[in-house]
Amino acid sequence: MRFSWLANIGISAAALLMASGCMLFQTGSASTDGEIGGRTVAIGATVFAWWDTTVYDQDNDGNLFKQTRDGQNERLHVEMYGFGFNPREDFRFLSIDQQLELARNMNMYDSLIFVVGASGGIANGARLTYSRAEPPTPGDQPYLAGEPELSLGWIKVNETNEYPSTVKELGSARNFTLELKNVSRKAGEAIEGSFEIKIDKDSNDRGSIVTGSVKGDFSAPVLHERIAECNFDHSGAGPDPGGGVYPCDDLEYDGVNP
User: Is residue 42 in some structural domain?
Assistant: First the structure.
């Protein structure tokens, strides 16, 4: 998982209630059907999307000025989690106890994250695929940028549990599909679509291999870019390569968070 300074963080509904006094609520939705190794994938408690469209450039005097990324360098993030939290809350201002709970929940529950590269040209009906055997080639058309991040949550170990006779591993043949049926760029509106995950045994796999498939539908409200990057991606807004504008404060840095 890639959550910058809070590596593996989310905010639970209980933590949200304590932190902001807000009523408990759900962000977005997702439904799934199918299993992987006999396990269902529960990722419908918090679902959202955000567009990475801002970049800073530097003039001859060293001043940074904001620009909009061209479509080839733009990215769309679609994220789904199995526990309730408010992704619009600035995570830095939670208490230490709440931050510890965030880290635990991000590992405890299932999650799925898609990143679409060259998203400037994406439109309703776009169908994007990723195969570990033949990853898509980056270009000027929308594509899945890297293998989608599927994380299966913890299984509780009871007092009397023994070690299993064999250790199971996820199959290496992994294929993902993301279909976008309604695309919106406006914060507060929703991106709607569907996805499919297929995990199979590769010819090089040995031992006890876990396989399965899961299909699902989702509705993901669009977050404002800056709060999304402040919480989930501190690489900032360029200039690229080397350094950028730290999204949580009006600070320039050279690759190390201030």
Answer: yes
